[in-house]
């Protein structure tokens, strides 16, 4: 149960804070791809805005399908570990992407990040519903969304730092290294979280 402060407000438990952290780390990687991948496609590959947007369709399609099948209350930890692994593998594969990488490979890479996107939102939200007390659900949900937005802010900063004035393949590889570190941390946080087993009980 969350501890109450002298002002009568409930403090988030460690389990809830870990859920916020997982959501933030996951979306650092997801937004880095949503924003940074498109920039690279337009600049390094010379695609139009419309074509670059179409290249992200597998990400959106896979995310919708993954979310549709991830609403179960059981198996949450396995799905969250899958998120971390998918993001880490996708980030590592970015190191092998260059100006001449085939379209099929680029589409498959986008789909891999989409798998993580679809699983993480539903699985973390399901976990939050089990962890937060009913009378604090509105606040907990708002902070959950804030954690996601923080991930977007950090992702935007990473893109600017890694790309600099030109979104070339070298910048994409620098971004990949940053994402490998972030998703590695996400994997450790997820695997080490014993509270996830309790949440499924």
What summary fits the major beta sheet?
none
Following the backbone from N to C, one meets helices and strands in this order, namely HHHHHHHH
> CATH topology, which one?
Growth Hormone, Chain: A
Question: CATH homologous superfamily - what is it?
Answer: MFS general substrate transporter like domains
Number of strand segments: 0
Report the C-alpha radius of gyration, rounded.
18 Å
The unreliable regions are 1-9
Broad shape: elongated
Provide the β-strand percentage band: under 5%
Q: What level of helicity do the residues show?
A: over 70%
- Tell me the count of domains: 1
The CATH architecture would be Up-down Bundle
Summed over residues and divided by their number, the pLDDT gives a mean of 88
Structural class, please?
mainly alpha
CATH top-level class: Mainly Alpha
* N- and C-termini, Cα separation: 16 Å
Q: Helix tally?
A: 8
Explain the overall architecture.
- With 201 residues, this protein is an all-alpha fold.
- The protein has one domain: Growth Hormone, Chain: A.
- It contains eight helices and no strands.
- The protein has helices at 14-43, 49-54, 57-68, 76-93, 103-131, 137-163, 169-192, 195-200.
- Helix 1 runs antiparallel to helix 7.
- The two termini are 16 Å apart.
Descriptive keywords:
elongated; 201 residues; 8 helices; mainly alpha; Growth Hormone, Chain: A; 76% helix; 0% strand
Q: What's the SSE blueprint?
A:
Layout (H helix, E strand, L loop, with lengths): L13 H30 L5 H6 L2 H12 L7 H18 L9 H29 L5 H27 L5 H24 L2 H6 L1
Helix pairs in contact: 1-5, 1-6, 1-7, 3-5, 4-5, 4-7, 6-7
């Amino acid at each position: 149960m969350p501890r109450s402060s002298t002002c009568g407000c409930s403090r988030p438990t460690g389990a809830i804070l870990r859920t916020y952290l997982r959501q933030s780390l996951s979306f650092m990687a997801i937004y880095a791809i949503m924003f940074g991948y498109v920039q690279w496609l337009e600049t390094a590959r010379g695609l139009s805005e419309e074509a670059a947007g179409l290249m992200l369709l597998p990400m959106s399609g896979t995310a919708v399908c993954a979310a549709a099948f991830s609403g179960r209350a059981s198996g949450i930890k396995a799905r969250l570990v899958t998120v971390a692994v998918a993001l880490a593998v996708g980030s590592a594969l970015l190191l092998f992407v260059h100006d001449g990488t085939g379209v099929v490979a680029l589409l498959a890479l986008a789909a891999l990040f989409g798998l993580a996107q679809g699983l993480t939102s539903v699985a973390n939200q399901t976990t939050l519903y089990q962890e937060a007390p009913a009378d604090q659900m509105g606040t907990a949900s708002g902070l959950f969304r804030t954690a996601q937005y923080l991930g977007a802010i950090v992702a935007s900063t990473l893109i600017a730092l890694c790309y600099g004035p030109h979104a070339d393949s070298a910048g994409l590889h620098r971004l990949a290294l940053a994402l490998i570190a972030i998703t590695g941390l996400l994997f450790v946080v997820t695997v080490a979280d014993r509270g996830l087993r309790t949440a499924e009980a």
